[in-house]
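Feature request disguised as a bug: please show the residue count (411) next to Trafficking protein particle complex subunit 13 in the output. Example input:
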Amino acid sequence: MDVNQTKQEHLLALKVMRLTKPTLFTNLPVTCEDRDLPGDLFGQLMREDPSTIKGAEALMLGEMLTLPQNFGNIFLGETFSSYISVHNDSNQVVKDILVKADLQTSSQRLNLSASNSAVADLKPECCIDDVIHHEVKEIGTHILVCAVSYTTHYGEKLYFRKFFKFQVLKPLDVKTKFYNAETDEVFLEAQIQNITTSPMFMEKVSLEPSMMYNVTELNLVSSGDDGESTFGKMSYLQPMDTRQYLYCLKPKPEYAEKAGVIKGVTVIGKLDIVWKTNLGERGRLQTSQLQRMAPGYGDIRLSLEIIPDTVNLEEPFDIICKITNCSERTMDLVLEMCNTRSIHWCGVSGRQLGKLSPGALLSLPLTLLSSVQGLQSISGLRLTDTFLKRTYEYDDIAQVCVVCPYTTNEC
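Example output, currently without the count:
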């Protein structure tokens, strides 16, 4: 839409048109029953209409393409294309024609001209054509500024410009949730909603992790050698529909043992979303760096490295605990094992584990048994730092299924 009309008569005329793909022709079918007065007249007219689909004449969507009748909507991540034409409407030769196209956003001004050199001369009824492209990366008001400068046959230098304003809308609503596992794994749930008025084909939704993590996509169902998407082969997202994507991030081996480093990592990565609309128009959107709340491990962290899924009632079984010093000081640790109603520890309680430097870890094998069937919680471990006389208690460390080997009852 032109918002600035020039008052001076110029020798050159500037025309700007947005380049966009056509749409399928839409007609309004008029039908009636056979016993009505028109009879089969309306049906015959629709069958003879070249724009309708043969055999589906009552369908509003035709098989012909129509050119865009208005500027249309522009969404973030799409490519804005425009055709610029400067035509010599006069009967004299115009010299030194320079056409410049800038795009003004709320934060910057971009030069979109393909060439910044002037055209030597332009004869009557001739034109200069240019096509500009720009991937839209900001929402809000955009102004396309087209400026033309030239010199007349008599040496007079003239200049004019026109402004074309348009709005860039947000196509997707992206929400993220983080879940910190008992280990150093991080699970990311991304909720993506289509807030446009047309369906989208989701070509790719991937997570680009930060340098400290490796990512595993959990949106595939294993079927033979190839994994199939949980959303099916035709991954369409209808208007206002929402879809959830899940990813698992694990620390790289060189960072996994550095508890202090992983503890403070808040930057996880960014989402890369690619979609197609209408007749294959492609859009791409990358989020900013996603950040999570750093988990609070405290001064010392206790986690399980190995634990069986199922154990027998009143039979000892082994587990391996990992103790990590997350503080910035050396600790001298003592381990105490306290029995609960169902869990009984085997071994000496109150034994010295020795000194543990900052960021260091210790693998500790332990043996225990359960006197109660069912899903039991492993609890009752206590660590004491003799340097500062601080005690750390750990309950509900993990759960194990206890079965009786002489019956078929299982949890």
